[in-house]
Write a structure and sequence with these properties.
This protein is of the alpha/beta class. It is built from 8 helices and 9 strands.
Length: 293
Amino acid sequence: MPGKAAGGTGRGRKRWGWAALMAGAFLAGLMLVGVILLRAPETERPAGEKLADTPVPASPVASDNGAAGATPGSRLAIVVDGFGYDPVRDAEWLDFPERITVSVLPYGPSSRSFAASARTHGFGVILHVPMESEGGVADRTAPFLLLRGMTPEEITSRFARMAADVPQANGASNHMGSAFTSDPGAMASFAQALKGKGFFFLDSVTSAGTVALMAMEKAGVPAIRRDVFLDNESDRPAKIRKQFDELTRVAKQNGRAIGIGHPHPATIAELRKWLAKIDDEGIEIVPVSALVK
């Protein structure tokens, strides 16, 4: 009898040990899922390792103006991508003194409130539309990405819901999208969706094979493409500073330029320094909508 009792106790301890291990594994799984869900939307790198260093011309034919001074009436737009998912960080940008353009992701915890406040502060507001990428980059926008292979109706419906979440927007840009913006059929359907809302489109140029401007022109949608990616290397202030200098050069040469950055600490620090001296360059800073034809 005592032997049986001891055996029963041993088996009970084993059962409890297994239960503890299973519970620990379950909790670890929950923590992992939580980390994944809390990830901020990622930024797809521009196409080509050096594309940010060699800006795509703002128009098919760049100006031949090589004068040292700015082209008369030179204008420049700063677009900051990726707002809506970090309320504290987003709020810090509302104190910004210049008329920047903010590109807001839909469905974030601060998307609606930030877009409304940004519009009140005089900023341009556009919708940052999540699109399928070639590299399979995934973040919290994965459930509502625009995907190749969707029907025109699916693209229109998904885009309309995103636009309703950021009602202050009057234009759109692509979040990631190297695969989607390179697909003529997908972009033709998207262009029709934009046309139905009266939006313009800013091509972030995350793919060298983008057909965005061609699709927009065919649909009669005003569109433009960015010239310089400002913070592809967000942890290198000197590199960001160099990109701002390049943006200034493009604006002087072509009469207009568009720079895209993100709400990184180094970006806002370098942007403030650059703004302190840009008045001396004879360049006007405007919302990106002012540059769209």
